[in-house]
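Limitations

Structures in this collection are predictions, not experimental determinations, and the ligand pose is part of the prediction. Treat each record accordingly. The example that follows, with NAP as the small molecule, is included so readers can see exactly what is and is not provided: the inputs are given verbatim, and the output is the predicted complex.
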Amino acid sequence: MSYNIHEITGRSRVYGILADPIHHVKTPQVMNRLFAEIEHDGILVPLHVGAENLAEVVKGLRHVQSLAGLIVTVPHKTVIPDLCDDLTDQARMVGAVNCIRRNADGTLTGAILDGIGFVEGLRAGGIEPRGMKVILAGAGGAASAIAFALADAGVAAMTIANRTEARARDLADRVAAAYPDVTLSTDGSAVAAAELVVNATSLGMREDDPLPLDGAFLHNGQIVAEAIMEPAITPLLAAATRAGARTHPGLPMLKSQARLMAEHMGAA
Ligand SMILES: NC(=O)c1ccc[n+]([C@@H]2O[C@H](COP(=O)([O-])OP(=O)(O)OC[C@H]3O[C@@H](n4cnc5c(N)ncnc54)[C@H](OP(=O)(O)O)[C@@H]3O)[C@@H](O)[C@H]2O)c1
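Predicted complex:
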């Protein structure tokens, strides 16, 4: 471990990540490193909780007065909004929560920061999505958050392409209702026309996965971005490099989120 956890005392603020399975999560390392960097007296620990016990656990955690916040991931992100007392506008629109602040009175405020983290990660890489034409592969949790955040960032047009087209249409309709200035479509063949190509499917985590979009239409006028962090160079990013496009990996999405999560939970 390349950082030191400071001494935990009776004053330390406690944070948890709720997940099932939990062994693979990277959030404890990322958040505890950030707490050390910003000299916040807090510690984030893994909380392995199955779906069947989530409501009971969350009900109990409300009464833990030293608890300041919770990170939430698979499979709880779309269930937990109902267990919160209030939600940010973005969480309400996306229908998912991945970060909760426990307020002093025990109430819980849920936020979704995946998508905002993605947009902040782009900006940290010198890419401003405002005004861009985007094609987004996927319509699951990460894609939904990214779609709303890109619309909020002012993209001009967005095509949502997904294996299950009905989910793409549903997401496109919800984004269009909230952001009427963005032109929405679900035509997965529109790769060449996009200035920003985003993969938010789980295709690319395995070496032999097919590309999430037709790689033949990638070109050197595009930026191709990933949500996947492992491997760092997915088959889509490799194809983009071969086509001369600029690439943007998945890790900045998580790194940018860490600070946003700390802010939402009152740690920064
Ligand atoms: N960098 C970060 O901070 C960050 C944050 C969150 C998530 N992620 C990554 O984002 C990816 C998606 O996560 P998620 O939470 O959105 O998962 P999810 O809700 O389960 O959605 C998965 C998406 O991938 C599509 N998909 C899955 N298998 C497919 C296949 N064989 N062929 C075509 N499409 C397929 C699904 O399409 P259907 O609708 O047709 O099933 C759906 O659109 C994961 O790799 C995750 O690690 C990264």
